[in-house]
Design brief:
It is found in: Cell envelope. Keywords: Cytochrome c-type biogenesis, Disulfide bond, Redox-active center. GO terms for molecular function: oxidoreductase activity. It holds the Pfam family Redoxin. There is one protein chain. The radius of gyration is 17 Å and the shape is globular. It has a seven-stranded mixed sheet. The termini are far apart. By secondary structure, it is α/β, with parallel strands linked by helices. It has one domain: Glutaredoxin (3-Layer(aba) Sandwich). A hairpin with a 4-residue loop joins strand 1 and strand 2. The chain is built from eight helices and seven strands; from the N terminus they run H-H-E-E-H-E-H-H-E-H-E-H-E-E-H.
Amino acid sequence: MKKTKIIIAFLIVLTTFSCTKSNEQKALFSKEALSETLLTTTENQIAFQDILKKYKGKTVLIKFWASWCGDCVKAMPKIKELQAKHPEVAYMFISMDTTADKWKAGIEKYNLNGANFMANDQMNGIFAKAVDLDWIPRYLIVDKTGKIVLYRAIETDFEQINLALNQLKKE
């Protein structure tokens, strides 16, 4: 009986810690995330930190997605709405596709206007783990100074995303 109570207590603590960690708001990217390279549409590799440097002084909305992801595809019209409401924002799409061909076909099929990159090792790789990617679509917003203002939003959080972008527009 005592062992059972200890095991239950341990599982409660573990579950609480796991849930807290996945919903944690981070203000900066980890060194692992920044140094990881992503594939460009021209088949080159570029470090994530170098991508972000190009957007210094701009608000950036990052969408993690994949062409095989039904929820990602369903959310594409919402991204188009955000792009229409917030043309001052830079939009970056980071794919978790398994092949460059499928990723590029998805860019064309869904007419993704913005910067497009693909993670080299998909959902279970170094980059995905470094940004705590456990679900797609996932959205992340970086402000003009490079600080993360919204670390984890999913397909049901468009109101939260829009509010964050409106707030940044005022700053």
